[in-house]
Amino acid sequence: MMDASFIEKILEIGEPQTITINGQEYSKQKLYPVLRPTVTNEAVVEVTTLQAVVDFFESGDVQLDDVIVTVLEHNHVRITSKLHGVQRNLYLVAQFEEHTYGGYEKNGFQWYQTQDFIIALNTDFAPSSERNELLQLISSVVAEDKLMQEDDGVSQTVTVRKGVAFVGTKKLPNPVTLYPYKTFQEIEPVPVQYLLRANDGPRWVLIEADGGKWKYEAKRRVAEWLKANLPNGVLVLW
Q: What span, in angstroms and rounded, lies between the C-alpha atoms of 55 and 70?
């Protein structure tokens, strides 16, 4: 039967031991380095479109059976070699830079004055019936001691009013589904549900309300596009 002292002796033998000779420390056991996979990126190519990824393969500078295409995020793709020992070569990185117009950050959210919000809806989101309805609603808001602005994108009229109200007394739609430009241009914008909130001013904010499901769908669409457009046999992970 093994007692505690016997187990401690085994553990002590297993631990690396050192001795010092003429001021130099030596190990009594042979030590092996713990090697972890690394990625080298000495000659990485940086692009912003998925078509550039296709062009990279068509250049003929890469062996199809030695590369992996990984969709890391909804806006981030990279091409690496397969693992050779503990080293993997990074060949190309494709990243789409998301654009957010104006506004200011408060409590972690981007708030907009009415005019900036109208511009953001037009520049950061794809056209849709939901976006158009929201633009019409936002454009008809009346703010206390402010000018009422109704803007259909062509003409604009203003009227001085008192109190905070909506022309026609309409409620804010919630949640609202919009199609933001958040992934590569080759991919159709993914629908995202938002919570629309208004504050004094008026000021507006859109808060994502789908738990990040749109990111999963966007990654899936990017991976499917790559599989359909890259040469046969290229491994695409997501």
A: 16
Tell me how far apart the alpha carbons of residues 168 and 110 are, in angstroms, rounded to a whole number: 27
Residue 199 and residue 108 in one domain? yes
Contacts of 108 (CB under 8 A, 6+ apart): none
> Could you tell me if residue 179 is inside a domain?
yes
Across the chain, the runs of DSSP E, i.e. the strands, are 18-21, 24-27, 38-40, 45-47, 67-73, 76-81, 87-95, 104-106, 109-113, 141-142, 147-151, 156-160, 165-166, 176-178, 192-199, 203-208, 235-237
Q: What is the value of pTM for the model shown?
A: 0.71
Range of the domain at 145: 104-210
Q: What is the pLDDT of residue 52?
A: 94
Q: How many domains does the chain have?
A: 2
d(CA 238, CA 224): 10
| Selection from 108, 112, 139 nearest residue 199 by Cα | 112
- Asked if residue 87 and residue 60 are part of one domain, the reply reads yes
In a domain, 159, yes or no: yes
* 137 & 117 share domain: yes
Residue 61 has a pLDDT of 73
- Are residue 53 and residue 113 in the same domain, yes or no? no
Q: For 26-47, how does the pLDDT look when each residue is reduced to its tens digit (9 = 90+)?
A: 776 776 666 666 666 666 889 9
* Separation between Cα atoms, residue 41 and residue 120, nearest integer Å: 36
